[in-house]
Amino acid sequence: MKDIIIKGGEVVTPFTRSKADILISKGIIQAIGRNLDEKGKKVINAAGKLVLPGTIDAHTHMALPMKGTTSSDSFWTGTRAAACGGVTTIIDFTEMADGKVLLKAFRERKKMAQGQCAIDWALHSCLRGWVKGSDAAIDRLIKEGVTSFKMFTVYGERGLMSGDGEIFEALQATARRGAMVTVHSENAGLVDAYTKRKLAIKDTSPLALAESRPNVCEGEAVQRMISLAEAAGGRLYIVHMSTKEALRALKEGQRRGVNVVGETCPQYLLLDRDSLEGRKGHRFTCVPPLRDPIDKLVLWQGVEEGDIAVIGTDHCPFFGKQKDKHAKNFTKIPLGLPGVETLMPLTYTYGVRRGHISVNQMVQVLSANPAMVFGMYPQKGILQPGSDADIVIFDPEKKVTLRAKKLNMNTDYSPYEGLKLVGYPEMTFLRGKLIVNKGKYVGDKGDGKYIKREVAG
Ligand code: URP
Ligand code: ZN
Ligand code: ZN
Q1: Are 246 and 263 a contacting pair, CB within 8 Å?
Q2: pTM attached to this predicted model
Q3: Which of 67, 101, 310, 436 could pair with 428 as two cysteines, CB 3.0-4.6 Å apart?
Q4: How open is the CA angle 199-202-207, to the nearest 5 degrees?
């Protein structure tokens, strides 16, 4: 591959932005500076454009089995779409397993993704419970580059749930090794009780999904998980935070020194439960459910003030007809929304242009922070010499109206249909290879490689 110079763009890091050229050789950033020597290099003109590190989406579910169906993006279609949206690494999940079969679950999922991905990829291990052998399995997985273990406080009926004592054990065991636990946090007992009430009055509407999991369910569970991490001296990551109550618990935990990181998603920053009441409300069903406008505002504040360190998508798409089949019954509807492709452009228009965050903060929450939290920094997440040349050339003035039919995710609708954006990725480089040009995917299946992640020092 010929060496490349990306010329004259505004290079953005977590704390700086400056006009500079970037020299790429052998997939690595070799130099960043003014007027780099162009001789013998392929020159890409980035004048007037932002030059950003590729986004790392730390929360995707490609081909996830769910309620009798499967999320509609494969590793191939989902990562190709991701590339078009400026994402250069995803972290997906293994199937749920306990300690006895954790390694097997990892190997199966790795086999499924290998050779399929358009961008780099890694895996969180989904861990249920705590059994003899869990410790050893964690050791083996860390050697394979898996340093985060996802647990659930709900979904007993789907065989995903772990008890507090089990999560506490996992927090201690992972922390001893510099790894971490990530948690889907809702209070199972409360969700059950509220759900029974809805079913008793035969209300299975999409809005009833939200009403059966009110804010307190998440707020209580996040607070409890933080207390467990505090007791365990653990490293904790709270996925898809959707409520002001969860944010309050996060801030309190962080202020008293608990090692906890919070993630939210575009759907909780941009949408609210009004969407669940529309004619196509069932197509907006996800868990945690969409909340009230006040939650959106408070979550934006959490991002602005740095309490929420990561925006990931929880990308879990379905075709309209997969959702429509159970439109009137929230207990059967497959839950989740498409989002990996729209993460960066939505964050730019609604975060940066609206004045919530600076473009530097955008780079923090989409690239540098997920790379640091999940053991990929500084290989990923930053534009600096020595790092992988995962680079997005972003046109900050490009006007785009979001239309599902123009997006590349394997679904036929978008929860953001019709939103007007200003700013969109134009080119994506994966380790120096141009894989998206003028918004069109030009890479090859299998360009993406598995990223072995590091434990914290
Ligand atoms: O509704 C959602 N979020 N589906 C994906 C699975 C999960 O709980 O994250
Ligand atoms: Zn979840
Ligand atoms: Zn998820």
Answers
A1: no
A2: 0.98
A3: 436
A4: 80
